[in-house]
Design brief:
Helix 13 crosses helix 16. A hairpin with a 3-residue loop joins strand 8 and strand 9. Strands 3, 4, 5, 6, 7, 8, 9, 10 and 13 form a 9-stranded antiparallel β-sheet that branches. This protein has 19 helices and 20 strands. About 40% of the residues lie in helices and about 20% in strands. The protein has about 525 residues and is of the alpha+beta class.
């Protein structure tokens, strides 16, 4: 076992002067030492020191006959009363072996702490002879009442000795001796000290951080004591993502929760354009509908992994059989606007278009071929040389590029100017640019539509209508001919013709429905 020094122990507890390598104390500020006679506890000494060397000498002189303790807070004046406690920069948790007979060593106690608060870091551990003192370093505070309250609440959560959470708290000092058992006297030894073993990573806590951990644990305790399932909520029954809306509204079963959380998170971020804060609130509400709910901190941890990850979980089919069964259980194809489709031998692949690139003012200035190029570069995410790009834009029937060389050059320059694509001079390739989304969300669309444009099954105007239709459906916007015409600055009379062509190409499906007033309207289902 590595030997840790008393000097570095004191540096965790108190401020030091770098030049003198001694305590940095104010004129009337002291470090308190308490010594209690081993054979007669009525005999005790209380000393107040200004220098570490004085403490070292005191320990050497009295350690064989006295239990020696150090105050966790400095004092203002030479008094051990609570009102004289001054500066403190550690929390201390006292674990006695007799309270945990099932534990054999420090590893068991450390595991115990991690099981209660996984993210809590212990800066120093001292073996007191019959137990362990765990120290958590904080910034220096003069508010000893606050420090004591936090120490007490932390002790409650972790199962430490609450008698050792006083404002005047003292602790056995390393290098002294625990004299309780005459037959088995033990030196008080430092087991671990992060300040000494890894000083560059020694970071004392801001007390607010620990208070937040405590509040989270309190919330979780109340959650499990009072948890009851929230009843199913109402939702839009006709949706581009009916199954996900149903999952959110009804909750899922045990065994389905992790996949459902990923799918819901993708939906709220990429389709509904929720902020992270609002999405997490929605997810916590959804969790209470699940059978059973998961602990809130686990939900938040998993949510953040999905939110910050690049998972694609919005498709109608997934490789995992159990996850597919979950989708099938919530799926109602008669109410869902999203259908999976394959036409000929062309596999339909799902892509995401940034909604900033599909804003009305942008889509009105670009044409379908601009978006076609973005789509091809997105599908070929490692980038394409101009030659390879031309190959990808080649019509399979005519064996010619679907646009002329000069037109391709113009569109590439347009996209470079807008920073929608970039050109790598070293590798001589074009790449799709990931632009800042700013919460705008993404529109899910089918690469099959892009292939249809390349192969002249649809034209560039029809491709724009498709993208606008997909965007509006997923954002639950109006999709009437008049609205699409206004969004695209196209003639309303042409929109109907374009949509029929998209339907004929198999890119969308159209169904006729009747509303309560007896009027018929189109229901569009987007292939993905």
């Amino acid at each position: 076992m590595a030997r840790f020094s008393l000097d570095n122990y004191l540096k965790v507890l108190f401020d030091f002067d770098e030049e003198t390598d001694d305590f940095s104390l104010e004129d009337n500020e002291f470090v308190r030492i308490v010594a209690i006679k081993a054979e007669n506890e009525d005999i005790s000494l209380q000393k107040f020191f200004k220098h570490k060397s004085e403490i070292e000498e005191f320990i050497k002189k009295y350690k064989y006959n006295y239990h020696i303790y150090i105050g966790l807070a400095t004092t203002k004046g030479q008094s051990g009363e609570a009102s004289h406690m001054y500066k403190r920069k550690v929390l201390m948790l006292d674990f006695d072996r007799k309270d945990y007979p099932e534990y054999t060593d420090v590893t068991d106690f450390s595991t115990h702490i991690k099981s209660r608060i996984k993210t809590l870091f212990n800066h120093m551990i001292v073996d007191t002879g019959h137990g362990y003192h765990y120290y958590i370093a904080t910034k220096r505070y003069k508010n000893n009442e606050r420090m004591t309250t936090v120490n007490h609440e932390l002790g409650e959560i972790l199962g430490a000795d609450l008698k050792a959470t006083l404002i005047t708290q003292i602790a056995r000092i390393p290098t002294s001796i625990n004299l309780k058992n005459k037959e088995n006297q033990k030196v008080v030894a430092i087991v671990a000290n992060n300040f000494e073993s890894n000083p560059e990573r020694f970071k004392p806590y801001n007390l607010l951080k620990i208070e937040a951990l405590i509040e989270q644990k309190k919330y979780n305790k109340v959650f499990w004591e009072q948890v009851q399932r929230i009843p199913p909520s109402e939702f839009t029954t006709e949706s581009s993502y009916y199954c996900i809306e149903a999952m959110i509204a009804e909750g899922v079963r045990e065994g389905e929760r992790n996949f459902a959380l990923g799918r819901i998170t993708n939906y709220l971020r990429d389709i509904k354009a929720y902020t992270e804060y609002n999405a997490l609130r929605k997810v916590h509400e959804w969790n209470l509908r699940c059978q059973p709910p998961k602990p809130p901190e686990i939900v938040e941890q998993d949510f953040k992994a999905y939110w910050n990850g690049k998972y694609k979980l919005l498709g109608c089919t997934v490789p995992n059989e159990r996850d597919q069964q979950t989708i099938n259980r919530f799926c109602d194809r008669t109410l869902c606007r999203t259908v999976e489709k394959q036409t000929g031998n062309v596999k339909s692949e799902e892509l995401m278009m940034d909604n900033n690139q599909l804003k009305d003012k942008v889509i009105q200035k670009l044409n379908g071929y601009h978006y076609m190029i973005i789509s091809v570069l997105d599908f070929n995410s490692k980038g394409l040389s101009r030659k390879r790009l031309v190959e990808k834009l080649t019509n399979t029937t005519t064996k010619k590029c679907c646009i002329t060389r000069d037109t391709l050059t113009k569109y590439l320059n347009d996209l470079l100017e807008r920073n929608y694509i970039t050109y790598n001079d070293t590798k001589k390739i074009y790449l799709k640019t990931e632009i800042a989304n700013y919460g705008a969300g993404y529109t899910r669309y089918s690469y099959f539509a892009t292939l249809c444009l390349i192969n002249k099954l649809i034209n560039k105007q029809e491709y724009l209508v498709y993208l606008c239709l997909a965007r509006n459906l997923q954002l639950n916007r109006d999709v009437t001919y008049a609205t699409l015409a206004k969004d695209l600055k196209m003639d309303e009379g042409n929109i109907s013709r374009y949509i029929q062509r998209l339907n004929k190409a198999g890119i969308i499906a159209i169904e006729r429905n009747t509303n309560l007033n007896g009027r018929t309207y189109n229901v569009y289902k987007i292939a993905s």
